[in-house]
Amino acid sequence: MAAHPLTKDAAAVLRDIGKLLPELEALYKDVHAHPELSMQETRTAGIAADRLEKAGFEVTTGVGKTGVVGLLRNGEGATVMLRADMDALPIEESTGLAYASKVTAKDAEGNTVPVGHMCGHDMHVAWLVGAATLLSKARDGWKGTLMAVFQPGEETAQGAQAMIDDGLLKRFPTPDVVLGQHVMVGPAGTVAGSAGPITSAADSLQIRLFGRGAHGSMPQASVDPVVMAASVVLRLQTIVSREVAATDAAVVTVGVLQAGTKENVIPDDAVIKLNVRTFDAGVRKHVLAAIERIVNAEAEASGAPRKPEITPLDRYPLNVNDETASNRIAEAFRGYFSPERVKHTGPAPASEDFGCFGTGMAGAVCVLVRRRQRS
Ligand code: ZN
């Protein structure tokens, strides 16, 4: 039986991957050892631009601050955008590896923090350099325009929108399809994906509850924001358990609860920071409205002197994979890697700003990001 044309095409492009692997591994280790925080990815972007230029791409740097766009025009045909994110996280690496990060950097608030590639974006950079190099070498085997995009600031949900705001979808050809990837937990040597929702929408909020401070020995003179915050946290647990249908899914996690400085002083206010994950626009709307309702009602129940302040911190869109494109890619993967190595994965409660590119092409704004406030 003749090989499927997609399998033949993939084999032609990947012909030289063996020769390229040592160089890609060295690149991965180099990027891993030199991680950069969101929107500060100047070194990584420089490496990406250099590799794209060497592979014959037209390169534009500084798109959305540190983003890099490489174009390889190869005749009539579809424009395919491949995207890799470049940023690392403010987390100290404790792997003890020879190429472990020892880097510290100043974050957006001016704090010195350790930096590590804890989300695998170093791997994504190496993958996209590899794909761009191989596709450039195998130019006789495909037609169209390849657009390699190295995106900043995924971890803060800023980068995709920053690139769109800087003209990504106007200054360059409009992609017919946008492909992204992420390392994930699973057996080595397998790939996974699915059509439809693939990663959740995420909303982070800060809630400031206002009470009235007093000496700890005179609670009657206070409106205690500590008790108010405790009630809010407990009541928030009923949103998922009592208000979301069993067939739907949502997560509401309170990750920050802060109030007071001393055991015998009732403070003036309390701060809660929480994170919401949803897989459906209607569920998202309901959960966010329920949070607002509960926070305001608990403040009123406590006799708060002021309405609580609810501030959005960041927001990631729901990512929904196009069915036709997803099936075509899965078919190519099954043909090349063998069907056992290609898994189906349901939606993950992880979040990505990748979907902003699709939202942007539909003419909408994806995220309204406020600067994260110091906790
Ligand atoms: Zn990631």
- Per CATH, the superfamily of the largest domain is Zn peptidases
Based on CA atoms alone, the radius of gyration comes out at 24 Å
Order of helices and strands: HHHEEEEEHEHHEEEEEHEEEHEEHEH
The name of the CATH topology of the largest domain is: Aminopeptidase
Backbone shape: elongated
Please describe what this structure looks like.
By secondary structure, this protein is of the alpha+beta class. The protein has two domains: 8-199 and 318-374, Zn peptidases (Aminopeptidase), CATH 3.40.630.10; 201-315, Alpha-Beta Plaits. Helix content is 34%, strand content 25%. The protein has ten helices and 17 strands. Strands 1-2-6-3-7 form a five-stranded mixed β-sheet, sandwiched between helices. A four-stranded antiparallel β-sheet has the order 12-14-10-15, with helices on one face. It has a two-stranded antiparallel ribbon with strand order 4-5. β1 and β2 form a beta hairpin. The N and C termini lie far apart (62 Å). The relative contact order is 0.16. Mean pLDDT is 93; it is low at 368-375. Zinc ion binds at residues 119, 121, 154, 182. Zinc ion (ZN) is lined by residues 119, 121, 154, 182.
